[in-house]
Each structure stands twice: as structure tokens, then as C-alpha cells.
Amino acid sequence: MSDFFHWIATLPALVQIPLVVGAFVAAVAVILFFVEIAPRSGRKYTIIRLAVCVLAPLVIFLFLGSVLWAAAVAAVLGGIFFILDYRAKQGAGYLFQLVGFLAPALVLLLIGLVYPTISTTIAAFQNSRGNRFVGLDNFQWIFTQPTGIRVVLNTIIWVLIVPAFSTAIGLAYAVFIDKSRGEKFFKILVFMPMAISFVGASIIWRFVYAARPAGQNQIGLLNQLVVLFGGQPTDFVSISPWNTFFLIIVLVWIQTGFAMVVLSAAIKGVPTEQLEAAELDGTNAWERFINVTVPGIRSSLIVVLTTISIASLKVFDIVRTMTAGANETSVIANEMYTQWKGFENGRSAAFAVVLFVLVLPIVIYNARQIQKQREIR
Amino acid sequence: MSAVTPIDVPIDNATKRQLKAGERASERTLTKRTKKRLTSRGATIASLIIALVWTVPTFGLFISSIRPAALINTTGWWTIFQNPGLTFDNYSQVLKAGNSQLNLGQAFINSIAITLPATLIPLTLASLAAYGFAWMNFKGKNWMFIGVFALQIVPLQMALVPLLSLFSRGLTIGGVQLFAGLNASGSYTQVWIAHTIFGLPLVIFLLHNFISELPAELIEAARVDGAGHGQIFFRIVLPLTMPAIASIAIFQFLWVWNDLLVALVFADGEVAPMTKLLAEITGGRGQDWQLLTSGAFISILVPLIVFFALQRFFVRGLLAGSTKG
Q: In DSSP terms, which residues pair with B179 in a beta bridge?
């Protein structure tokens, strides 16, 4: 395997794309071919199935650079799988097809998400070299250091402010432009930052915040406005504690478009009859909005809020690009990376676990909301 | 029989015209009224301000990127009419800027080389899995699907470091080497695999929403006609869900193109994408605005083109993920 990738890596970048994509498509085609012929009955097909069951694990393991006898064990397991499949309740070949469809994705998830998650959790309780258990020392280090506490606090500030503001602004904008002329165009304007990378957005806003000493021409838009109203130019990203809020604006700027589009679609789903009935009852626009529209889009509101909360908990790129965590702006995700770069694997893992614990309740809540919505439908 | 039946009233042409005009007028006010129902003057002003704040920074970046370096650093971009001057030097300069291993022009190629396979591979694998979950029956299917869904909980940060050591050192259990390691640092391989894995849970979930809603009769009919699961997937499910796949593909594309964290960990040296190099330039040469503005604009150009060209799919994909159950 590594030989193949080594050979590929020596080629020009743009040649690699068709080669890798071609190899991948060929592999998928082979899977689909065997899946297609698997359920057919007859001796010929049984032999083909047996051959694939035994040879596929063998080849894959050898390909991965496994030792010979481990590959042999895999082949034997493949043989056992063949027998299981042969006696499957739904008919021979059914399990075979199932594995063809599900195994590639599930195996990758096991290797790339399940195993690393367990591994990181263990590492969080070990020292930086990962050879000795240190109990809760890493967590203690985070929560007793002033900088560590600051990092956690900053993350909490992010998760409190970003969802609230982006949802509020997005909702207001969606309501204001609803059914107005040029609605589509207005939507695009606010939606556009969604397509911009966090790094790009950070540079855009660094430029807005750029400061020149008083007396010189300002090149940053915000400082120009400050000067225009008679203030002193300030370096917004370096004055603690307000700099965190100036970083937060960047994420609000990005996420508002998301909130706006989703909520706008939800608003259009609110039955007009209800709004008209409320109007006949003599309510004003604000009452109609609070009592009819908001309850009507409640589930969408929750999904938007939770989605943005998760995004702001994991925020990394913005902090990394704008301040790299300097001047007390660091957040958990950034600190996790910084510690890892500093060869403090234990602390890095501990930060990751703290992040996981913070994300967990929001995701569970979100999943239950989706489940509920499903049951209603 | 209803009490009121339409009858032919003998009226002259003039009256007819008058009536029609009235009808039209009443219609016009009606539509106007529904249009204006929620918008007042304050709301209009507020939405104009929001629209401005959301576009002016990007616009300023673009204007600055085509101004001469000396002017960018001494005058604001809004004074472009007092201090005129247009140049593309910034772009040619930034394409050559970078570190010892790579410049931004090469990083642009890297971004493409990383993004295309890292979009195609997870979508294909996920559509296979989504089909399996949607149209095949097996014990524990629901639990397994919930398990895949739940993997979205795991923040990337949990998975990065162990996955990297898996790539570089392989997997050895009890002294038995199961996996020799990719030994592929400095190639795109590990970035592709990492992005594939991290994208899978969400993509499987979203595609499952679409694939499971195809009419069962269709699948059944194909089966009666003698198609196996392989053919059903390739000839029926795949073409029918193409619009959904396209809209989710846009997200995966943007996600990979815009990603910084995975690139920082997995793409080292010569294979770094633009985001990583730009972040580096921002850190090291943070006051060279002629480089930053043009560099940033190059990096947001591709997503913006994708966004404007495929906007319909973009919105549909977004809504599939959030409002649809």
C-alpha cells in the first residue's frame, strides 16, 4: 500500500487526482460487481463467493503491510464468514452483500473515529509521553492554571454569544426581507460569508480591525469610524478582555447566513391562515411574530441554535489566524493544538476530552429534537 | 345545487372594462398588502445595514487587493477615488510568496488536489453505506445506524493525534503488526483519508434521509425484474439521488477547501493547502497587507464561484441537514 502511495506522491499534483479517483472508482466497481452476483445460486457463484471471502481479507491485510500469519488469520476468518453467509436466514450471499455496502464506511469509521476517541480518552489520563497513568493531573493542570481557566471561560463566552447573536440577526433579517422585492439578492449578500473559509474571513476582519497610530491615515475601516467620531485608534485584537468579542464577531458574521437561510425557509412554512387569523383578531406585527411565527419555527430555531453552538465550541481557525491565542484569546480547540505542538500529549488530550464533554449534551439534545420531529411526521 | 350560480349579465363593453380594471386594482393592493405586511421603514433600514455590514468587509478586501502596496499601507481603501491606482502586482507577488518549501501558487494546486478526491471518496462510500442502511434488513440495523449518527458527536480534536500516529507508525497489537503505517507524510494520502473519515458520519446520515425516502415500489419492481442490490444501487438509487448527492458534495467540497485544522495536522511541508499557508503568512507577515488581501481573495475565489454557480443546490443541501427531520 505504502508503495502505491509513494509512487503516486512522486507524480505532479494534478496527475494524482485522476489516478487516485480512478483507482477508487475501480475498487467500488469491483465491490458492486461482486455484490450484484453474490445472491445468484449455483455452484459457480458459490465458489466465487468463497474465493472472495478468503482472498479479499488476505490481500487487504498484505496490502496494509501486515505480517503474514495475521493475514492468514484474516483469511480464515473470511472463510468462517463465508459459512455464516452460506447459512444466512435471508439466503446465501445476503451477508456478503451487506458487508459490501457497509464495510468500507464502517471500517473507516472504526479506524478513524472510534479507535482514536478511545485512544485520546486514555491519553488524557497519561503523562506527556504516554507511558504512565497520572490520574486527573492533566485536568487539574487545566483547571488550576489561570491561563487554563481563561481558555475554558473564553470557550464558554464563545458558545453563549455566537449562537444567540447569529440566530437573532439571522432571524430578524429573514423576517425583514421576507416576501420583499429582491429577497433572493438580499439573501445572497448575507449568505455569502458561509462560503468563505474561516482563514479568509479572519484576514478580512483583521483588515477591518487594522490600526495605525493616531494622526496617520487609518487603513482599517473600524478604526476609521472610531477616528471619525473623535476617538483614539485602538488595536482591537490585542486589548484584553474585549478582543475575544472582536474575534466572536467574525464567527457571528459567518454563521448568520446559515441561520438566516434555514429560518427563512421555516418562516415560509408557517401557514398563512394562522397569520391571517391573528391579523383578524387585531394583533400587531410584533404580536403576530412572537405568538404565531416563533412557535411555528420552534424546531428549526432549536436546530439552528444547537448547530451554531457546536460550531462555536469547536472554533479554532479564527483564533489561530487572528491571534494564535495571544492576549488571552485562546480557546479549547486552539489550546489543544498548541499543547500537542509542544509535545504535551496528555494535556492536549485532556483539552480534547473537555471539549467532548462540553459538546456532548448539545448533540444529544439536538438528536432528540430530530427524533421527535421524525415521530411527528 | 348551490344557491348562487354564475349567470350571464348583459352589460356593455365600457362597464366590462371598468369592472376588469377594478378587479386588477383590488388584486394589486392585495399583493402589495401581503408583501408589506411585516416590513416597516425601520425594518428596511435595519436590513440594509445588516446587508452592508455583511458585504463591505469582503468588498474592501477585494478593492485593496488590486491597489498598489504603498497605497494600501498608507490610505484606506475607501479613498480609492482620491488615491487612484490599480495593479495586479499583489497577485503575482503573493503567488510566489510562501515558505522555503512551497509558494501560494503551488498551495492552490495542493488545495485542488486535496479537495477533489476528499469530496468524491466519502460521498461514494457514504452512499453505499446509506443504501445498505436504507434498503437492506439485518439484525441490529437501527442500533448501528444510531451509532454512526452518534459519531458526529466526536469533535475532530479527539481523533487527530491518534489517527496521525496510526498513519505514521501503523498499528501493532500485542506485538503483531497489523498495519505497517502509510509512511506517507509529505503526500496527500493521509489528508484524503482523514477528510474521508471525518466527513463520513454526517454524509451517511444526510444521504440516508434521501435514499430511504425513494418509493419502495421502485426498488421492488427492479428486484422483480431480476436486478441485484448492485444494479439497483448503481442504476436506480444513484441517478435518482444525484441532486441530493450534488448538494451534499458542495458542502463536503467547501468544508475540505476551507479546512485549516486537518491540514495543519496531516498536510505537512510540500502538500499544504492554501489555508495553511495563508495562516502562516498571516502569522509571520501580518502587516504585509498587499499579500494578505490578494492571498485571501485567491483562497475565497473558488468557494465563491462554487457558491454562486450552484447556489440552488447549496441551499437545498443546507436545509436537508437542518429542517428536514
A: B171
Do A352 and B157 count as a contact with CB atoms less than 8 A apart?
Answer: yes
Residue A221 lies in a domain: yes
> Is the model's pLDDT at A41 over the cut of 90?
no
A71/A161 same-domain check: no
Mean pLDDT of the region B89-115: 86
Give mean pLDDT, residues B138-167: 84
User: Which of A123, A156, A178 is at the close of a domain?
Assistant: A123
User: Which range is least confidently modeled, A6-15, A175-184, A214-223, A292-301?
Assistant: A6-15
AA identity, residue B70: A
More confidently predicted of A167 and A306: A167
CB contact (8 A) between residue A117 and residue B158: yes
A50, part of any domain: yes
Does the pLDDT of residue A366 top 80, yes or no? no
In this structure, is residue A349 part of a structural domain? yes
- Neighboring chain A residues of B116 at a CB cutoff of 8 Å: 17, 21
Same domain, A175 and A214: yes
Residue type for position A279 = E
CB-nearest partner of B162 from A6, A35, A120? A120
Looking at residue A132, what DSSP letter applies? Answer: S
Interatomic CA distance for residues B266 and B195, integer angstroms: 10
**Residue A148 sits in the same domain as residue A278:** yes
pLDDT digits (tens, 9 = 90+) for A345-365: 888 899 989 988 888 888 788
Cell of A367: 438528536
Q: Do A111 and B154 touch (CB under 8 A)?
A: no
Question: Is the Cβ of A123 closer than 8 Å to some Cβ of chain B?
Answer: yes
CATH of the domain at A332: 1.10.3720.10
pLDDT in the model for residue B33: 47
Q: Is A80 exposed, middle or buried (0-12, 13-18, 19+ CB in 10 A)?
A: exposed
Return residues 212-251 of B near A (CB < 8 Å): 228-231, 233-234
Does A293 lie in the same domain as A165? yes
- Does residue A370 have a pLDDT over 80? no
Residue A129 counted as domain residue: no
Domains, chain B: 39-87 (no CATH), 97-322 (1.10.3720.10)
Range of the domain at A22: 2-123
Nearest CB to A175: which of B38, B78, B234? B38
For residue B231, which residues of chain A lie inside 8 Å, CB to CB?
Answer: 36
Residue A2 pLDDT > 70: no
Average pLDDT value for chain A: 84
Q: How many residues does chain B have?
A: 325
Please, are residues A201 and A193 in contact by the beta-carbon 8 Å criterion?
yes
Alpha-carbon gap: B156 to the closest alpha carbon of chain A (Å)? 8
**pLDDT tens track for B248-304:** 888 889 889 988 989 988 888 788 899 989 888 888 887 788 888 898 889 888 888
Q: Which residues of B touch A106 (CB under 8 A)?
A: 129, 144, 148
If we measure between CA atoms, which residue out of B230, B270, B57 comes closest to residue A193?
A: B57
Nearest chain A residue to B111 by CA distance is A13
Element (H, E) at B176: strand B176-179
Q: Which of A166, A152, A157, A167 is nearest to A357 (CA)?
A: A152
* CA gap A71, A64 in Å, rounded: 10
Question: What pTM value is reported for the model?
Answer: 0.84
Are A161 and A231 within one domain? yes
Complex confidence, ipTM: 0.85
A233 in contact with chain B, both atoms CB, cutoff 8 A? no
